[in-house]
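User: Run a structure prediction on this.
Assistant: Running it now.
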Amino acid sequence: MKKLLPIISIILFLMVLYFSDFEKTIAIISEANISFLALAGILMMLSLALRVTKWKLFLNALKLKNTWSDCAHSFLPGLFIGNITPVKIGEPIRSYILKKIRGHSVTATLPSIWLEKVLEMLSTIMIGLLGIIFVWKSQFNYVFIFFGIALFLIVLTILLAKSKRALKFFAKFIPKVTGNMVNNLRKGFKIGNKNIVIIFLLTTFIWIVDGIIFYMAFISIGIIADPLFIISLFSFAVVVSVITFLPGGIGSFELAFILILPITMSGAAAGVLLGRVFTFWIPTLIASVSWKITK
């Protein structure tokens, strides 16, 4: 099944290009306003810098010695591997790279990555819910229910992650996990509620920045929309891309975004493709260079 996921991604992506009239979509992109795209590029670099800073905040909360450079050299390779694997399952490699750089135990830092992913999903769901409440129309009530259920499950996951009893229970199903490793995992989750709130707020800000990048992408091709609608729709597409398990959400992200936008397929595809260039493709390229340097 895992081998089929990249194929499914490619098929969905090609479907998006085909039904949106590829030639017309490219024509729209070719006329994009460079100034707005330049601003999108600046926001992209800000987003990357903030993501590295967030990783540093996790490590600081665990009282693990590190520098911003250490965090960048471990985060970026993890971002690259995460972006090319389903549901970013390869991203925890940053813990291994950090161990090579600083010698920190993998089991001490790995929970931070898990918790980070949970907080990211919680943040996207919150943004999506705000969009549904204040902007989206009533026909999207089923989306509201979906987000509500997902929110409940994520909050439950956070509570379980901070429970020593829960960690011991799940460890029973992983034979190689020793008692010492369970303790390290427990310490990894023990970063304090204050730190979790700060990191959650930073995570939310990062998603908003990425959403604004999409807003800039649409403005660059002359499509003006409600910023909150674009940002919340971006969050919804992120959630869809995660639950489809496709590498980088390629295909599913674009499809979810385009189908809901109340504009022509060609215009929607042009805006989404431009947005993805600055929120996925260029960051992945930058991260791939870092991966090669790390190796």
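The chain has 13 helices and no strands.
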